[in-house]
Design goal:
Layout: H1 21-24, E1 28-33, E2 36-43, E3 50-51, E4 58-59, E5 65-70, H2 77-82, E6 85-87, H3 89-93, H4 95-98
Amino acid sequence: MPSNRRSSKRPYAADHVPLDVDRATGGRRSESAADGEWVVQRIRSSDKTYVCPACRQEVTPGTAHVVAWQTDALGGPEAGLDGRRHWHTSCWQRRANLR
């Protein structure tokens, strides 16, 4: 038999909290650009040091950055995933100007 008590999780008649798609997908999104189709995932921090392919500088541990891989890579999606790279967020955003 259901309880007559109201839920304490969300007060009666309170608005629903809108879905945060970025949080639900783990920060992963698809992007189309002149250089192909990409999957881009935001990373808050990491424990390793990576080298950004754009500026050739280190992406140090604890630095927020993006990981990107091409979905239309030669050799298929698996080859694109194997070729994923860690980019500084600013380098990723301006990569079209670097070419």
